[in-house]
Design a protein that fits this description.
394 residues, alpha/beta, Quinone Oxidoreductase, Chain A, domain 1, Rossmann fold, 2 domains, seven-stranded mixed β-sheet, six-stranded parallel β-sheet, globular, binds 5-beta-D-ribofuranosylpicolinamide adenine-dinucleotide, binds zinc ion
Amino acid sequence: MSTAGKVIKCRAAVAWEADKPLSIEEIEVAPPKAHEVRIKIVATGVCHTDAHAMHCTAAPTDRDDIPLPGVNLGTFPMILGHEGAGIVESVGEGVTNVKPGDAVIPLWLPQCGKCEHCLDPNNNICKTLSVNNQILGLMPDKTTRFTCKGKQIFHFMGTSTFSEYTVVTDISVAKINSAAPLDKVCLIGCGFSTGYGAAINSAKVKPGSTCVVFGLGGVGLSAVLGCKNAGASRIIGVDINKDKFEKAKLFGVTECINPKDHSKPIHEVLIEKTNGGVDYAFECIGNVGIMKSALDCCRLGGGTCVVVGVATVGTIAVHPFHMIVGRILKGSFFGGWKGVTDVPKLVSDCIAKKIKIDDFVTFTLTLEKINEAFDLMHAGKSLRTVLVYQHHQK
Ligand code: PAD
Ligand code: ZN
Ligand code: ZN
């Protein structure tokens, strides 16, 4: 029996308040309104940005720091998750780009295709992100599609994939090849694309160059793969967890450094090792101190530091002379990809085995085990945990 136009009851992991484990609840998911799409989520990755959001106590409107566009940290109660893949269940009025049955990846960075940023081939930050109420955990009409125990539940990053069903806007959905393994390509929804694109699009790594990647988690190793595929000849991996090194080498890291093994600051170690500094440095941790180290180890006259990690506290203290001598400091949001047009291509590259996405999945769990996925992340044991939904309750 069709569920279109009806409220769907399903399970979701609800974050009721900060610093508490997520709780598995039965929720109600309202039908999609105009220009919205309801998706049956099949699988979702667990990204460190979800963990940041779980531990953020200040609501977006009370924050004294600059809010990250589209990322609603601290909007409790909410349903987290932004690295999912699923099948369109139904669509609202006026939706023409997808139809029920299509395989899709929800996008936390929309692509309206019409604004100046979308029309610029070098800009992926769609202007709608600043005005679509995603930062407030709401749909564009300022309401939510989720309720639980009579309470309104907020969305997260416009995707909320820690639910068996979710509702997104039609500019926040990429239609992908239905032959794709959804329990693997879900990682294209955030971590993989972010790191890989930071090297390919944001840094535009040149063949023969020397790169350093700080943080060898899912995002960092995706950056490593991007550097490797772009032809970098030396890729140095930096992490304080030495257990990350073996796997990092399989992805293309040519040498590993643990800052704990050195008495000198890490940027000095790197400048010495590379005879003057690296061509490209990627910060994939979210620590402002490491962002500074990443900039400091860049070579004079063009060494480029790309900030990828999300830092929820602090600022990068940069002496102007560091920039005058030609170092470049830049950021990367979703790896510079335009979701609607580029995500399907990345998925095709996975199907063609040009990208070995399976290598990033270290654990596969059910929705009930979601808190274990966060424990594995915090213990440094997982590259990515993917939750595969059972859909046995409706
Ligand atoms: P992860 O927890 O899997 O990996 C982080 C890695 O950093 C781990 O291996 C840690 O051991 C290592 N680490 C921690 N502290 C240090 C330190 N002081 N020195 C060296 N290594 C350290 O996280 P992830 O790969 O899922 O995400 C990494 C960051 O990227 C995180 O901040 C996340 O919020 C951010 C992110 N940004 C975007 C974007 O669009 N810019 C998208 C997705 C994720
Ligand atoms: Zn993410
Ligand atoms: Zn746009």
